[in-house]
Design brief:
Shape: elongated
Strand order of the largest sheet: 5-4-1-6-11-8-12
Low-confidence stretches: 1-9
CATH superfamily of the largest domain: Spore Coat Polysaccharide Biosynthesis Protein SpsA, Chain A
Bound molecules: guanosine-5'-diphosphate-alpha-D-mannose, magnesium ion
Strand content: 25-35%
Mean pLDDT: 94
Number of helices: 7
CATH architecture of the largest domain: Alpha-Beta Complex
Radius of gyration: 21 Å
Length: 335
């Protein structure tokens, strides 16, 4: 077996958390779950699945809000690893979602949030987890503002000694935050109470620190795409990291890429700045300009409109000459 294969761990499974209402991305998330918002040419969820080992046995998608939309999308667009959806009737939180969907996990298994983009070597994470032989390994990203995240304190051996979810800046123990991808022994699931909402970060983590949880410090880019500004920043990082396809301008358009262009886009006479995703069937009329934005399937950008730093939802229509700056808009009638 090659040194870069998973060796005896080829039966690895992953659990992907896809609940949550995406409140910070409303009104677009009234109609589609945030994980299906495209960035750098494909839904956020598919960039997340790209991080998993290609020979993964399956990724179990722990869905909640808009679970039917996610099931339909993955059925129509099969990801590069096999996926299976396990919906929850009521939101169970991160720990509750793991318990509900984790009945058939491998030992160990990969657990990940579905709204983070990252540059990481999953085999290096799995190898560290095997070597440290604790109950699990949490990847950590270094950020300046730790307040929206879970923050870890580490000892000299990178064992996590303390974990605080969303601390006030003055009490944050470090700048190393939970990057949203971890590896756990299957037994971790046994410690989660069934049938009720459980926060993995606050209710489960304390006991896992006692059992030995290690940090794996990421070196590459990382972003949580859960707010409009961070979603667009994630898109930029993906494009700059070469994960947004060719980035060529649509036919008949001018300006600067990268632009990820879906099928059936019409954009003759439009201009582009960098970092744009255009979904399938988008129309950008002559003289319109778009930069640093996401325009979803079927949207129409009117002649001469100017769209910057914005997210335009499916089938939304931006009037001729309108200026959109750092806006998030959905089709009228959906919020
Ligand atoms: N199945 C299920 N059920 N999934 C859920 C639920 C639920 O009730 N609630 C949230 N999720 C999913 C979200 O879809 C997301 O993928 C993940 O769990 C984390 O939820 P977020 O709402 O995005 O949490 P956060 O960004 O505030 O904080 C989390 O992620 C940070 C990194 O981005 C925490 O894990 C932090 O510790 C971490 O630093
Ligand atoms: Mg998040």
């Amino acid at each position: 077996m090659g040194s870069d294969s998973l060796g005896p761990m080829t039966a690895m499974k992953a659990l992907v958390l896809i609940g949550g209402f995406g409140t910070r991305l409303r009104p677009v998330t009234y109609t589609i779950p945030k994980q299906l918002i495209p960035i750098a040419g494909k839904p956020m969820l598919y960039h997340v699945l790209d991080l998993l080992p290609p020979d993964l046995e399956e990724a179990v998608l722990a869905t909640g809000y808009k679970s039917a939309e996610i099931a339909a999308y993955v059925a129509a667009h099969p990801p590069r690893v096999p996926v299976r959806c396990v919906p929850e009737a009521e939101p169970l939180g991160t720990g509750g979602g793991m318990k509900n969907a984790g009945a058939d996990m491998s030992d160990p298994f990969i657990c990940m949030n579905s709204d983070v983009i990252a540059e990481l070597d999953i085999h290096a994470v799995l190898e560290t987890n095997r070597r440290k032989a604790g109950v699990g390994t949490m990847t950590l990203a270094r950020v300046e503002d730790t307040s929206p995240y879970g923050v870890a304190a580490l000892d000299a051996d990178d064992r996590i000694t303390r974990f605080v979810e969303k601390p006030r800046p003055e009490v944050a123990p470090s700048h190393w935050i939970n990057a949203g991808l971890s590896v756990w022994r299957r037994s971790v699931l046994d410690g989660i109470p069934p049938g009720r909402p459980v926060s993995f970060e606050t209710e489960v983590m304390p006991s896992l620190l006692e059992r030995g949880t290690y940090g794996f410090r990421l070196g590459g880019f990382w972003e949580d795409a859960g707010t409009p500004a961070r979603l667009l920043r994630a898109q930029q990082l993906l494009f700059d990291g070469g994960r947004g396809g060719s980035g060529a301008l649509p036919v008949g358009a001018t300006g600067r890429g990268p632009v990820a262009t879906g099928t059936g886009v019409s954009a003759r006479g439009a201009t582009f700045g960098p970092y744009v995703t255009l979904g399938a069937g988008v129309t950008v009329e002559a003289g319109a300009h778009i930069e640093n934005s996401v325009v979803m399937d079927g949207a129409i950008i009117g002649a001469g409109a100017h769209v910057a730093g914005s997210i335009v939802g499916p089938s939304a229509r931006i009037a001729a000459g309108q200026r959109l700056d750092q806006a998030i808009v959905a089709e009228e009638g959906n919020g």
